[in-house]
Structure to design on (263 residues):
């Protein structure tokens, strides 16, 4: 059975379309919601809707979401600083932001071959935290001369040198950028690869691992199906069962009906 991977070009194109539409002023309004240790932000742009971005609270300087109090905080990146002002109430906030680009970042990127970075692109790279250091680190791993638009995808999907090295340690080496972005989109981490390969399902390729994530064939699901009466279930069978919404509860219900029929 061939598993068709849900990749990224279309998904990324949709996201990049929303992000690349920021051709207007680099200041407008924001709304946000505090979610435990993260802040989920939505940036409003005239005529272009919203862009959502979730970040750890630790990424911000001066963030103090106190109810009813005026607040100012910053997101300081290599590419520049986003200044926020506004107010929070019951964990939700709103206000205005303004982006201050870093001229030194632009100069360093030009040295690496990125000589036509627009102010809008610089703002995007600031939001997704990509700068010369990561470009150089990726080049050392063999990912050189990445085009502007693809580099932005690398930033959006957090394709970091650390992620690449961790995948290489579990045997997923020499992946192209599309594959690397797909691992981020679908949550194929080194930890997941180790867990999946420890289930006794044979050799699992990147396509197989991605199919497991797409169809929610989790280690827990595999164990449940084996305990429900399928000790020798194969990878292909597990995917098919997930596609058809067959779980251990359903299998046990069938077994119960069969016993009643015999009576």
């Amino acid at each position: 059975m061939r598993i068709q991977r849900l990749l990224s070009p279309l998904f990324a194109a949709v996201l990049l379309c929303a992000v690349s539409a920021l051709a207007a002023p680099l200041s407008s309004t924001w709304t946000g919601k505090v979610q435990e240790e993260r802040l989920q932000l939505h940036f409003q742009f005239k005529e272009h809707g919203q862009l959502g971005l979730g970040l750890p609270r630790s990424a911000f300087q001066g963030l103090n979401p106190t109810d009813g109090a005026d607040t100012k905080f910053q997101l300081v990146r290599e590419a520049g600083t986003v200044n926020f002002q506004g107010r929070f109430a019951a964990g939700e906030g709103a206000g205005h932001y303004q982006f201050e680009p870093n001229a030194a970042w632009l100069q360093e990127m030009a040295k690496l071959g990125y000589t036509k970075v627009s102010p809008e692109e610089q703002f995007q790279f600031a939001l997704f935290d990509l700068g010369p250091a990561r470009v150089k680190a990726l080049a050392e791993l063999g990912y050189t001369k990445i085009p502007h638009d693809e580099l932005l995808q690398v930033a959006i999907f957090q394709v970091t040198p650390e992620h690449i090295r961790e995948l290489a340690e579990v045997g997923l080496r020499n992946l192209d950028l599309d594959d690397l972005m797909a691992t981020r989109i679908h949550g194929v981490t080194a930890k997941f690869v180790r867990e999946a390969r420890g289930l006794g399902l044979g050799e699992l390729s990147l396509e197989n691992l991605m199919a497991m994530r797409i169809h929610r064939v989790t280690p827990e699901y595999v164990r449940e199906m084996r305990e429900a009466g399928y000790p020798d279930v194969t990878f292909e069978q597990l995917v098919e069962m997930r596609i058809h919404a067959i779980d251990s509860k359903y299998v046990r219900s069938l077994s119960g009906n069969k016993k009643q029929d015999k009576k």
